[in-house]
Design brief:
With about 300 residues, this protein is an all-alpha fold. The chain contains 17 helices and no strands. The longest helix is centred in the N-terminal third of the chain and has 32 residues. The C terminus is likely disordered.
Length: about 300
């Protein structure tokens, strides 16, 4: 241990001044980029808890002023917001589970040489990454098969995702073949091998696909715009889209549904179009941000597996 400490000290003493300068520059550059990425979210948040009057006039930039949380109370009183949150949560959970399961199973099957016409089916799936019929044929198809204006229009079209299948197939191909061979020698069938052998080994890529799928499901609003007309099925992102376009009328709605006595006590806390936009934005964005810390340790390993062979 003592010799190791001496070697470490010598290594530190011999560090090239150019390396030190480059390290400092690297830290400065990445700190700047981190600030650029984080500041928009921080800016929106401090404006939601600051005086609405000051926020509307652009007086809140780096620090919150006259802190209050009335905006979040007011937004919780907006009709249909909770329903939209439940729809978004349901489509994210159900859609992610089905997409991860389908991607893992198809990725496994496409890696098996015994699958009938394996190359044909794999190429057919991958081709859909580059070619599609367009919005109008997609709309007509969804309507003809009965998915228009139903909850399942959010789920079924995204179950088979070619990009996720490719990721899973690449990961499965990196798994030692001896594991599946041993399971098959013990009498395990395809599903038994997949569930008992493959699934435990490919957890990193499953977490990666889960992140991608959950973010895509949560952030999607175009499918609601095109394929849903029932307000009970509107998602949170689509509701945010509506609120941003109708923030002025929504401001009046929030103020009318709020507590009149508390609003009269502090006019600065009365909802404004700006406060509504920013508060609803935080409500929409915050839940999905929690997904990344949970799966972060799997992300790099999952996405990079198979990139280097040998």
């Amino acid at each position: 241990m003592a010799a190791e400490k001496i070697m470490n000290k010598k290594h530190r003493k011999k560090q090239d001044p150019v390396d030190i300068v480059m390290s400092v520059i690297t830290y400065i550059v990445y700190t700047f980029f981190a600030f650029v990425c984080v500041y928009p979210f921080y800016y929106i948040f401090i404006n939601t808890i600051s005086s609405n009057d000051l926020s509307a006039r652009g007086k809140v930039t780096f620090w919150p002023k006259e802190i209050h949380f009335t905006n979040y109370v007011n937004v919780s009183n907006i009709p249909s917001l909770m329903s939209a949150f439940q729809i978004s949560l349901a489509r994210t959970v159900v859609g992610t589970i089905l997409t991860v399961g389908a991607s893992a199973f198809l990725g496994y099957m496409f890696s098996r040489e015994t699958m009938w016409m394996r190359k044909f089916w794999y190429r057919l799936v991958v081709a859909t990454m580059y070619f599609n019929a367009g919005i109008i044929p997609f709309f007509i198809t969804m309507k003809n098969i009965g998915l228009y204006n139903t909850f399942w229009v959010y789920i079924l079209p995204t179950v088979v995702a070619p990009f996720y299948i490719v990721l899973c197939k690449t990961f499965v191909e990196a798994v030692p073949k001896e594991l599946t061979d041993a399971a098959e020698l013990d009498g395990a069938g395809t599903m038994r091998t997949f569930v008992s052998v493959i699934i435990p080994v490919i957890k990193p890529i499953l977490a990666t696909v889960a992140i991608f799928s959950a973010v895509a499901q949560w952030n999607s609003f175009q499918d609601t715009l095109l394929l849903v007309s029932d307000p009970k099925l509107f998602t949170l992102q689509f509701t945010l889209y509506q609120y941003i376009n109708q923030a002025s009328s929504l401001k009046a709605l929030v103020n009318s549904t709020g507590n009149a006595a508390s609003l009269a006590a502090s006019l600065a806390h009365a909802a404004t179009a700006t406060s509504i936009r920013m508060t609803v934005t935080i409500v929409v964005v915050a839940p999905i941000l929690l997904v990344y810390p949970i799966f972060q340790r799997y992300f790099v390993k999952g996405i990079m597996i198979g990139a280097v062979k040998g």
